[in-house]
Amino acid sequence: MQREKTNIFKGVDGWLVLMFFLLVFVGWINIYSASTSEDHFEILDFNSRYGKQLMWIGLTIPIIIIVLFIETRFYERFSSIFYIVSILSLIGLFVVGKNINGATSWYAIGSFTIQPAEFAKAFTALAVAKLLSDQAFTFKPFKNHIKAFFIIFLPALLITLQPDPGSALVYLSFFFIFYREGLSGFYFVIGFMAVLIFLLTLKLGSIGVFPVTILIVVVTFLLFIIYLVIYNRSKLKKYWIQLTGIFIVASLFIFSVQFIFSNIFEQRHRDRFNIVLGKTTDTKEIGYNTDQAIKTITSGGFSGKGFLEGDRTQGDFVPEQDTDYIFSTVGEEWGFIGSVLVIILFSAFIIRIIHVAERQKSVFSRVYGYSIATIFLFHFTINIGMVIGLLPTIGIPLPFFSYGGSSLWGFTLLLFIFIRLDANRSFEW
Q: What is the pTM of this model?
């Protein structure tokens, strides 16, 4: 049972709010540097990209106030409605969506565009929290696995079809929440083995990698048997058929990798994987962005060249530098020190969300908190890994840093719904 507070700012976590505004401010400073022209003083030029971003930052204030004003029961009670609306908004793109850079991911109203996928993450997190907070829900029945997977894979599928596979991959972060709430780690083992086999096969070739992959599967197979013998011998007979099946499926999967890679992946995806795996070197076409981003970051050295002093940033060497590759601006102008401080700030922000999630009295609030923590972590890790060349370019924004109103508003909504839920916890009993 709970009662509602009347002061919308009472109980609001000050640290999360402070880090939010700090991240937004530092993000805007770098957008300004990456998109400004020769005249660095027209901050209120709303025809420029940094001017538009400043306007969108200003519009986060009414979003925050509205989110904090709404009663917490509203978010839980209507979470399913929010989810359905988000799904309909994704479906509607295939009818009236605007195609930008090869993806039909935006609604256009005059010169204004909005990307519903950025808001779908918050509404999916609410739907997941609603499902998992049901007192009758556990992950023991397999049918509940299907329910949970359906909630996250439906928007992921619709986003993939736009096509925007990078944004769709974010929904895999929900598996950490499922595991936190009781889902078997079996799915993580299978997922890890599948990714490992896939990458090894691409790296070494389907014939050459076969002995290595089989060895990995066999070792895993034997370790699990040893575990069962030592800790739960009674289950050895029960699981030997499943283990044998896993071994056979993994072996067959090796031979399907090349078919999947050649016939399902698009050429641009194949090129990016080949670059990351070191099979090809391309600094002029598909690998140009990453190559220029790495050169831009390393040119900053230890302390950086200084604000607005990055010649590669000012020279537009890195395409999309104020969006997906915004971290390269941080590296050049603020150097190793600035890059580390940004990483520390993001890490502290995510850790704070986890800390706040742990103190929640309701399962709904806790699950939602962990959901947004993993979403932020996924974006942060993948984006920076992509910019420094450790991961393939998949095109997902760095939260609060990358240029774009939909991204900024989506992350703001995602965070402040949780801040609102947390602020009301002292009024619950």
A: 0.84
